[in-house]
Structure formats: C-alpha cells, structure tokens
Amino acid sequence: MIAGIMRLLSIGLFMMSTEDDVRALIKKHFWEMADEDSLSTGQYCVLPEDAHAFFGEYFAVFNLNYSSFDFRKYFPQEGIFFLPNAILPDYLKSDKHQPAPLTVKMLITSAKAGRWINN
C-alpha cells in the first residue's frame, strides 16, 4: 500500500480519489478522456505500444493483480501481413478478432477493486 502511494506521489497523483487518479494517469500518457471513451476502439484509440507502457504504470501505481488481463483482447496482434500464421511462431501470429472496447470506466472500476475486472 505504501509503495503504491509513493508511486502516485512520484508521478504527480495525490490520492484525491481513485477516479481522479486514474483520469490523471490517462491524461499523463494520452489525453483527457471521458469515462465512456475507449482506449482500444473508436476514432481516437491509442497505439498498442503506448498502451503497453501505460498499463505497466497503471498496474504498478494501483497495485493491481493483472493475471486475468489479456492485452491482446483489447489490442490484437497485427502480425506480419504477408506471411500466413501457419508458418509463424505464436508470438508473431496475427489475431483474427476485433478489439474489445477498453473504457476509462473499466480502468476506474478495476483500480477500485484492486484487480482487473473483465467486463
């Protein structure tokens, strides 16, 4: 708990409320978003590389158990477009699904719960 508080202070979050702290972290990494906005879908989704950096800090700052978080559910692997999946190792294979919406509200709910909640 103390480590989480120290991380919040080190990045300029001051424990106003969990909601405000999540929003401040999102704004630090991306831009100000409404609770209904999705990081992974829509007109203004974030890049997977940027999302990866954000989630590293998000899970650390809020001290969340992320074992049930599936990054590729929200940010599918694009793979190598000119090679078939059959000849690629698993980590390079393309995902064949559309990204699921990952909203600011989901991030707030999970931060409050102390673990990732799949909605």
TrEMBL record:
<dbReference type="InterPro" id="IPR010862">
    <property type="entry name" value="DUF1493"/>
</dbReference>
<protein>
    <submittedName>
        <fullName>DUF1493 family protein</fullName>
    </submittedName>
</protein>
<dbReference type="Pfam" id="PF07377">
    <property type="entry name" value="DUF1493"/>
</dbReference>
